[in-house]
Design a protein that fits this description.
Helix content is about 35%, strand content about 25%. It has 7 helices and 15 strands. It has helices at about 5-35, 50-65, 100-105, 170-185, 195-205, 220-230, 255-270; strands spanning about 40, 50, 70-75, 80, 90-95, 110-115, 120-125, 135-140, 145, 150, 160-165, 190, 210-215, 235, 250-255. The strands form 3 sheets. An 8-stranded mixed beta sheet has the order 4-3-5-6-7-8-9-10. Helix 1 runs antiparallel to helix 2 and helix 5 (about 195-205) packs parallel to helix 6. The protein is globular.
């Protein structure tokens, strides 16, 4: 790595590029949604990809190539630029997370940029274009909203917890996820579904949500947000595991006081099957 402050250097670059990209997202939004010819779809009619997504990712890639030409990039729109060598930085980019919110004028969307080394995210930034809030973290250096240190909820009773989740674009899978959500709803304090996983993870970091889970997320959805939640003291579970009964596509973040109870509840209500 470049120096003992390598993580913070990467964090600063992520913030700078994400801020510029957030401004671009706002600039192109009205043009992108006003002309139906500029709208395209991905996996289904509700998974909208806009001119904004593509323009924003192109800007991120351009800025990263200028600042750190030896790094690799994995982006939602442009795929991967190669397989990282040991110690090589790979940036994981969601140019607009919460695209459906973006196209509908809902302000809960973000630009998410994370930096990964040897499979571990070491720095990241999530910027909200509408509010201008900047969520950021460098591994081992804490998590912040703007300059305010973040700390996850201290809740110890899941029955009082507000739990966020997301639903898949595929209608059949969305139905199964909604059924699990309905079954757990009576065992938690309340539930939220906002449509932007990166910001849901940041909300866990801030204590705005007491927990979050979702199945089927991609690396660009969670790279920066999961680090921010972890650095704020939340327990984070990323896809790739299956032994806890949640299935190998589950992402989960919750404070230590309720994480075991949330995992157990989800597993008991069939989350491993969605």
């Amino acid at each position: 790595m470049d120096s003992p402050l390598h993580e913070e250097v990467l964090e600063g670059l992520a913030v700078t590029i994400a801020r510029e990209t957030a401004a671009l997202a706002l600039t192109v939004r009205e043009r992108a949604v006003a002309d139906p010819g500029r709208l395209d779809t991905k996996s289904s009619a509700t998974d909208v990809v806009t001119e904004g997504d593509r323009a924003c990712e192109a800007l991120v890639r351009e800025r990263l190539a200028t600042a750190r030409p030896d790094d690799l990039v994995l982006g939602e729109e442009g795929g991967t630029s190669g397989t990282p060598a040991p110690g090589q930085v790979r940036w994981i980019v969601d140019p607009i997370d919460g695209t459906v919110n973006y196209t509908h004028g809902l302000p809960w969307f973000s630009v998410s940029i994370g930096a990964e080394v040897d499979g571990v995210v070491v720095a990241g930034a999530v910027v909200e274009p509408v509010s201008g809030r900047v969520w950021r973290a460098a591994r081992g250096h804490g998590a912040f909203r703007d300059d305010v240190p973040l700390r996850a909820s201290a809740l110890e009773d899941l029955r009082l917890g507000v739990v966020g989740t997301g639903l898949n674009y595929d209608p059949a899978r969305r139905g199964r996820q909604a059924a699990v959500l309905a079954r757990i709803a009576t065992s938690v304090g309340d539930v939220r579904r906002t449509g932007c996983a990166s910001l849901d993870l940041c909300a866990v970091a801030a204590g705005w949500l007491d927990g979050f889970y979702e199945h089927g997320l991609q690396p660009w959805d969670v790279a920066a947000g999961s680090l921010i939640a972890e650095e704020a003291g939340a327990v984070v579970r990323l896809p790739g595991r299956s032994e806890d009964g949640l299935g190998d596509e589950a992402t989960l973040a919750a404070p230590a006081g309720i994480v075991a109870a949330l995992v157990a509840l989800l597993a008991a209500e069939g989350a491993g099957e969605i």
